[in-house]
Structures are given as C-alpha cells and as structure tokens.
Amino acid sequence: MEYSEQEQVVEGKAQAVDLQDDYWHVNAGDEKVHASRIKGRFRTYKWLTASLWLFYFFGPYVRWDGHQAVLFDIVNRKFHIFSITLWPQDVWMLSLALIFLALTLFVTTAIAGRIFCGYFCFQTVWTDVFTFIEDKLEGPPSKRRKLDAAPWTGRKILIKIVKHTLWIVIAVLTGVTFGAYFADAHWLWVQYLTLKAPLVAWLTLLFFVVCTYVFAGFMREQVCFWLCPYARIQGVMYDPETILPTYDKKRAEPRSRLKKGQKSEDFGDCVDCNLCVAVCPTGIDLRHGQQEGCITCGLCIDACDSIMDKVNRPKGLIRYASLDEMEGKPKVKLFTRPRVIIYVSVLFVAFTGILYGLMNLGAMSVSVLHERQPLFVRLSDGSIQNKYIIKVVNKAERKLNVSIDVEGLEGMEMAGKKSLTSIPKGKVLPITVFLKVPLSTLTKSINSIFFKVSDSEDPNISSKYKSMFMGPKID
Ligand code: SF4
Ligand code: SF4
Fold first, then answer.
1. Which DSSP category does 218 fall into?
2. 32-81 confidence digits (pLDDT tens)
3. Cys staple from 125: which of 50, 197, 337, 400, with CB 3.0 to 4.6 Å?
4. Residue 378: beta bridge partners?
5. What angle do CA 129, 131, 136 make, to 5 degrees?
6. Closest Cα to atom 7 of ligand 1
7. Does the Cβ of 217 fall within 6 Å of ligand 1?
8. pTM score
9. What is the pLDDT of residues 167-195, one digit of tens each?
10. What is the set of domains in the chain, with CATH numbers?
C-alpha cells in the first residue's frame, strides 16, 4: 500500500521505531515537524472549534447601546461587556470569572485531557492556519522538505514571499484586534493608518506581530513544550479515567505491513503505515503510549480510521479511551470521580458568585464608613452623635442627583443634610453626614441602621446600606 505521506515525516532523523514499551518521543526542538493534512471527523471538529476565533476578530466592531459591545476601557477604568458595565469596584467578578475559566480548563483536562490545546488554544489554532497556508503554497510535507532543501530560485523566492506576507498580515490583524478591545476599534484603525497611534499602541502591535509570527510560523509545537505552563501542569489533572487518544495495543500488535506470504491472522490490525505519525502536528508516535507532547487533537484517529477503512478492519484502532478502559476495567461514572467532583464544586461556587454579582450590578454603588475615633460624641443637649462618610459611585451614563435617608432608630436626625447632592458621571463622591439620636431613645449601645441613597430622577437607581449607630453602654 502506498501513501504519499507515509514516509518519514520528521526531518533529520530516520524514524527508527523503537518497539520498547517505554519509548517516549519528545521533540524538544531538534526536529522540524511537517505534518500531513487529511480529511476526517476530528479535522472537521478542529475547523469548527477554530472558527470560534472569528468572534475574536469581529468582536471589536459590534456596537451595543451606542458603544463598543466589548471594550476594556482602561483610561476611564470601566469594562463594557454588552449591556453590562464593570467598574473597579466590581473587579472581584473578573477574578471569579478567571477562576471559573481556569477551573473549566481543569475539568475538561480531567475528563478529556488537553482537549483545549487540541481544539481551542490560540497557539494551536494559529499554527494550524499558518501550516494550512504553507500546505497550500508549498505542497504536502515531502514537497515542502524538497523546497526547503532546494537552491533559491525565482519560484522559491516568490512562494516564500507570499507565505511570509500572509503570515505577517494575520499577525498584524491579530495585534490590531487585541488593541481594539482596549480602545475604540474604528478610532484605533484610523490612528494606525495615519501613523498617529500612541506609543503604547505601537508597542502592543509590535509585540503581537512578533509573537504571532514567530510562535505560529516557526516555533509551533515547541511553544507548547517550552513556554506553556498549562502543558507542564496538565499531568496532575489526569487520572486513569481520563480519555485520551490511545493506541489499542492488544488489537494492533504485532504490527506488520503484510508482505507476500504473510498471513494476516498472525498479526495485529496495525499495518505499520506510519500515517498516524505523519499527520501528528507534534510529531508523536502514539503507538508507544500516551505522551507528554500529545495535544489530544484526534488527527491520528482520523488517519488510522482512514487506513482501517482501506484494509477492511474495524475503525478505532486509535481512539479516545482511558487507560482503565484499555486494560478492560469497568467504566467509572463521570460524577463519581473525586477530582471531577472537586473541580465542578468550585466551578459552581465561582459561577454562583458571578451570577450574584451580575444580578446586583446597579447604576450606583454605596459604601458607608463609620467614624472610629471617637465612636460617638455626647452633645450639649444630651443627645448622641455619630459621624459617617458615605461613598457614592455613579456608574450611570449621566449625572446623578442623590438624596440620603436613614432609618432604624426613633428620633434620629441627620445634621447638615442637603436635599440633593450632584455626582458627575463616572465619579465617586464622599459625603459626610452626622446622625443625632436622643439618649433616651437608645436601648442598646450598638444599633442597626440603614442608609438609603436614591436618585431624584429615577427611583430605580437607589442603594441601601446597613450600618451601626454607636452609643454609650446602656445598663
Ligand atoms: S498523537 Fe494524535 S492526538 Fe496526539 S497530538 Fe498527535 S495527532 Fe494529535
Ligand atoms: S496505528 Fe493506524 S495509522 Fe498508525 S501505523 Fe498503525 S495502521 Fe497506520
């Protein structure tokens, strides 16, 4: 059987397949991987998940309520996410969101290995797009290697110029798009095109262009190996129940190309075609066991299934399976696995926190600081006075005129109270108030009171804050 790409795919090394069980191939940068591209189920999934990144490129141009739908406006210290506006006071929600995303990664890793790397990670996706361009311009791996080794001719120069230009265009678009999440996208394009962009914008663009071009164009799988921290810690999230692309050794071995006179019953199902290695973007031979460099992309499954079809053997010689499954152990239910339970529980807590935060986002937030020294003063008329600083944050898109009311104690009066206080849009205003209560009405030394701050125009914009009124010890 002849496959144009089943020849050795790793440059610089004869792929002497070592049949020892403990063989573990790690390409630490001494080889250049030219992976073949074949059609298949997992290749289609990869394109579908990769296409989600189109939202990244189109995101900054979507408008919502008169502003950019997603804008991390660092200058004005507020983040717009569609109709939600987050202020520095809400930053705890962003922390929870990051915890949520990290735990989602942990859960998916515990269940299905580095599925994020194989299908969603920007490094993998950009590398896939860059090698797709390379494949279209230079041909399949055997032609690419020949072209690389060939002397510089007009044709070779032209091909290389077109390839690198396309790579740089993608790198520039990646960089400009990133910047467009932090400044108005249309404004930013104008600034770049008229060469008037601020220095920080140029530096950000330069950083992204260099990283995208070098990481996706040249370093490729080496970024995962050398630079990615997740690749280093993924091992601790695995257990024998984690499903990963796995070679069914019992069914496959002893492998053979079945030369003339050999009987197929004497051999396993692997026909030693090497196609699973040829398509692997990280240059792994999975027949030697699950390996550190595997990004669980499933492309070797597509490759092997296509061969099994051709030799009329059942598909799934390489398939997503756990080590326990391969050893014939009974399947454990997903939500009885301790690490899945722990990750999902913390995920749920983070999600609840985010939900709570989103449901309690208002156009105004209020905090009240009670004066500590002194806790209270006794006035000449015998009444007790406490001092408070009320901090009101105006998160609305207009000026707020707020009134302050207090309740909780009989006979309580607010000294120096203004009927309305103006708070400009986007500002925080500290308002000092004094509360006075006749001593005779106090029954305890610590009393709960409630401040209510309301906008004069829109009664829905209001906030209640629980505080304390302190008095002398009451016998
Ligand atoms: S071994 Fe298979 S699943 Fe793992 S990276 Fe290579 S092609 Fe992808
Ligand atoms: S595992 Fe499948 S693709 Fe890989 S060498 Fe054997 S038959 Fe070929």
1. I
2. 889 999 999 999 999 999 999 999 999 999 998 888 999 999 888 888 88
3. 50
4. 384
5. 95
6. 280
7. no
8. 0.80
9. 999 999 999 999 999 999 999 999 999 99
10. 41-237 (no CATH), 244-330 (no CATH), 364-470 (2.60.40.10)
